[in-house]
């Protein structure tokens, strides 16, 4: 049996969008490494069940509402008296289609969660961390779509690219406390959001995670032959950024893509925005 690590022993963490997918895998890994985990999500049943199973806590949180994010931070402080880690992970996809037909209300809806939700998280988590005087780690979910064009819809790409700037500026400001701010940019992870996009794109309702992984590895290219991305790959990277092992890393965007964004410039595939 693999010995459990204690990289986050005694640390208090909030994970938005933590009920499933990357957030859920990260919540489980954090707990296995000794952290007290607050799952903040809108998927109440899934979130509550997961929180109970890992000895954590759950709070309903719509990150587009600043008061909800503030309440999640206050909830963590009331539970354990401090906050050490905030993984701003909650996000949604965006409508595909041509820029010429884009509904700006759809753009606002995506930005309200994917961008404003992360700024809400940085704002209120940093307040708690500054008051606690022990520093902390803030991790923000971006995407390979922020690095390479043509991978996702225009609203989604705009929101994920826009995260990189505030992460760097807040890393500059908060480093004196010392609070580290970093981003994580996955590619091709078979989340529910990506599965839904492929169902629409391929016109099939029965798409499974392994189908998407095969599609990405087989036709979308990777430096790692036959190797698709998994939730656990991203969770391990987030764990690294959350732990003291990355104590001298700040203002960084850690890309978890199997080398995709490095290799694609040498390939001749045409990429179509799918979500």
Note down, in words, how this protein is organized.
The structure is a single chain. The chain is α/β, with parallel strands linked by helices and 275 residues long. It has a single domain (12-189, 229-266), classed as Rossmann fold (3-Layer(aba) Sandwich), CATH 3.40.50.720. Helices cover 45% and strands 13% of the residues. The chain is built from 10 helices and 7 strands. A 7-stranded parallel β-sheet has the order 3-2-1-4-5-6-7, sandwiched between helices.
What secondary-structure arrangement, pairings included, does this model have?
Elements: E1 12-16, H1 21-32, E2 36-41, H2 44-53, E3 57-60, H3 66-80, E4 85-88, H4 104-114, H5 116-132, E5 136-141, H6 154-174, E6 179-186, H7 192-202, H8 209-219, H9 231-242, E7 253-256, H10 260-263
Parallel strand pairs: 1-2, 1-4, 2-3, 4-5, 5-6, 6-7
Helix pairs in contact: 1-9, 3-5, 4-6, 5-6
